[in-house]
Amino acid sequence: MALLECRNVSLGYEGKKILSDINFALNGGEYLCVVGENGAGKSTLIKGLLRLKKPMSGEILTGDGLRPSEIGYLPQQTEAQKDFPASVAEVVLSGRLNSLGARPFYNRADKRDAQEKMRLMGIDGIQNKCYHDLSGGQQQRVLLARALCATRKMLILDEPAAGLDPIVTAELYELIDKINRELAITVIMVSHDIEAAARYSSHILHLSHRQVFFGETKDYLTTKEGRRFAAGEGDRDNA
Question: What is the DSSP secondary-structure string of 148-210?
């Protein structure tokens, strides 16, 4: 069975459908970019995949031993979250919360995993710094390390490069690509950056209140929708 599969999924709010008839499947190690215009339902889909919203119809299934609580998630930050008064190490370690079970405290394995993820993200040298004193790029590395502490198989990223300058954005995309290739972690990334999607992703899911396209990235770029987005004609706001 696929690592994640949507079968005829419809999602919405208060009885009103936002997304209809979503069908796709992802296997381990694949890299999916979710694209679409403003209000197309990208964020609604993410809530469904994270089990924060129950489908109005259809099924969202996980396989290969993946539990919904074991999906690493990097959401968009609010201004209040950027001022969070905790150390880098504390923020990263909090990604292990779902693994605690009945334990009231983090154990050595939790702390070792947090150290490993900080080294992977190149932030072990600033682990004692306060999170709110970091640059935007450093904060995203911290949150990425935190998300990695929560998973061994899948990361969901919601516009991870929003608000970052081009150099930092390029570095972040390279890090995400490294995680996908070297750790074989499946990546689902909501993005308006079609250039990055074309370069890094293996698959594209294009939404417009329904499924416009799902398939390999190389095939998407030959479609009318793919050419339009590649030319910069798509709405680049978040949905």
Answer: HHT-SSEEEEESTTTT--HHHHHHHHHHHHHHHHHS--EEEEE-S-HHHHHHH-SEEEEESSB
